[in-house]
Amino acid sequence: MTDPLQTIPLSEIYANALPRDRDTQDAEAQAELEHSILLNGLRQPIEVWQLSQPQDGHRYGLISGFRRLAAARALKHETIPAFLRSPRDIPDAMAAMVTENEIRSQISPWEKGRLILDCIRSDLFEGEEAAIATLFGPLSRQKKARLRSIVLVVQVFDGALATPERLSTARIERLASALRAGWEDLLSDTLRTSGSDTLAGQWAALEPVITEALNPQHGDTAPGTPTAPRRSIKFARGLQIRREVTRSGWILRFSGPEARVPGLMDDVMETIERLFGTEG
């Protein structure tokens, strides 16, 4: 149901009345939008609904048009054209926001997973299935399955990855498969000790572990099971040794303060030499 177009004071609109489905804002794109509005005015009104009770002076909650509202505020506008909607409830308003943003702008897989979790944590839905069914109802069964994988990865790695909104669906699904195989502890530990603050560096550290998780050797079992091979060893002084699979074989990665002690690698090489001998 749609009411006629109205002009509403910006001060009366609560922009964060709903959990938003975009975690980050593109500063360049936002500047372009502001320039367009300055030259041509606002071509597409925002959508709001009237709150049952005003919140801090706000009479309306924003459904769609977060970037347009932010641009109008940056340009010091006092009012904005808005369609006053009448959603049945908050989940219905959430579904309208998601639908509008799916059409107008590309939302990353990570942001979709974060939105689902935020809605569940805000008690807007009873669980993951209800949230997906309401917010992403038109999607195919396969795409909904991908959303479940995304939610799983966001649950485990939220706050641990740099710029996770840049992760592709394919990479997220690989991470989800490794998690389901029982590799959460080793993946989390690998990420924590990667020493990188960029997504590229973090993924480079995770990739060997994911590869091993998804391509186990004959008879291999998941970490933590009684017959699992040792994949990581931690020592009292902070030294950690983790094995990683490569295309040509295996490597041992040493990390922690003790890994920088002079002579450590010499000792390791001497031990290996005693075990296997040398040529000639």
UniProtKB/TrEMBL annotation:
GO terms for cellular component: chromosome. Residues 6-102 form the ParB-like N-terminal domain. It holds the Pfam family ParB_N. GO terms for molecular function: DNA binding. It comes from the Bacteria. Gene3D superfamilies: 3.90.1530.30. SUPFAM superfamilies: ParB/Sulfiredoxin. GO terms for biological process: chromosome segregation. Belongs to the ParB family. This is ParB-like N-terminal domain-containing protein. It comes from Tateyamaria omphalii. The lineage of its organism: Bacteria, Pseudomonadati, Pseudomonadota, Alphaproteobacteria, Rhodobacterales.
